[in-house]
Each structure stands twice: as structure tokens, then as C-alpha cells.
Amino acid sequence: MTKGWMYYLSQGLLKVYSSNSYGYDRVIAFLKDDNIFGLDCFDPDQPSVVTIECVTDSWVMPLQSEMLTGIMRESPDFACDLVAYYAKVMRQLCFDTENQSINDAKVRLVNFLYLYAESSGDDRIAMSQQNLAAAANCSRSSIARICTQLKEAGLIRVHGRGLTVLDRERLKAFCRL
């Protein structure tokens, strides 16, 4: 339990998800370098509502909520930056909710691949098909089928544990953003 603790992700890849009573996971986000996570624990009397798992080796720095409150009081600019970051997270959650409820599995995966590559500046996406399935909210077998289609179209190259986007602009043409 991370009650009262938040973390700064300096380096790595994390999966943020929640689980239901049937054991199904719903991915909320994949976080990369330079992110704060565990903000749902800002209130030290409340436990975290999500599970956070390292997908790759990661370097994180723990922060107690009192420490973050002190930094915000000393630096109003930091407080403004944190609010802007939190607003960005909220917009992303709204986009994800709309994306998951309207689009089919192929569009959800293509949206994820494009946005992930665009935001990270890296066309290599080192995620298993299971993690991609969780991100697109569909089965691993659907991901395998869609990846085969994208590979045949020359949009991605699949390797070991992950894939590489070969043509970001062509991939974007399949997106519904």
C-alpha cells in the first residue's frame, strides 16, 4: 500500500491499472520518464486506488505528501506546474474513456501506438502483446491479429518483446484522434 506516498519516475516504464473483483485489469496509463505517480495518495488518510507495476527496470524517488505540500508552499511556480500536469492527466483520462468506448480494437491499438511513439519521441515500443492488449482494452489474440495486419501493411516491425513503428505518418492516417 502506498498510503501517503507518491513517486517521481526518473527513468523506466510503469503500468498503472485497477483490478475488478473478477480479476480483470483495466490499464489506466503507461508512464515513462519524468512523471509523478501515486497522486491519488496526496490525501495521506486514503489508500491508493490503483496498482502500479514496473514494465522495465525503473528508477523512482519516493515523496511523502507532506514533502510535496512543503515544496508547493515554497514554490508557487512548482504548484502551478503540478496543477498543469494533473490537468494533462485528467485530459488523458477523458480521451482514454472516449477512445475505449467508441473505437474498435484496431483503432484503439493504432491510437495507442501513434500517441506513445509521438509522446516518447521513440518509435520502438518495448511492450509485450499482453501489455498492448491491456492498453487497447482487448484480448492478446486480437493484438496478434492486428499486429499481423499492421506488419503486412508495412507500418510496424515486430520483434521479441515489442515492436517498432516504421512510418508514424502513415500510422496516424489510421488513427481517430
CATH topology (level 3) name of the largest domain: Jelly Rolls
Distance between the termini: 35 Å
Q: What is the second-level CATH architecture of the largest domain? A: Sandwich
Mean pLDDT, all residues: 85
How do the strands of the widest beta sheet line up side by side? 4-1-6
Q: Helix segment count? A: 6
Overall helicity: 40-55%
Number of distinct beta strands: 9
Give the CATH level 1 class of the largest domain.
Mainly Beta
C-alpha geometry: elongated
The secondary structure category is alpha+beta
Domain unit count:
2
- Share of residues in strands: 15-25%
Order of helices and strands: EEEEEEHHHEHHEEH
CATH superfamily of the largest domain: Jelly Rolls
Structure in a nutshell:
Helix content is 45%, strand content 23%.
Q: What does this protein structure show overall?
A:
A hairpin with a 5-residue loop joins strand 2 (14-19) and strand 3. The protein folds into two domains: 5-101, Jelly Rolls; 104-172, Orthogonal Bundle (Arc Repressor Mutant, subunit A). It is elongated. The chain starts with a strand and ends in a 5-residue tail after the last helix. The protein has helices at residues 65-74, 76-102, 105-120, 129-136, 140-152, 168-172, and strands at residues 5-11, 14-19, 25-31, 35-37, 51-54, 59-64, 124-125, 156-158, 163-165. It is built from six helices and nine strands. It has 177 residues and is α+β, with helices and mostly antiparallel strands. The model has no long low-confidence stretch (mean pLDDT 85). The chain has a three-stranded antiparallel β-sheet with strand order 4-1-6.
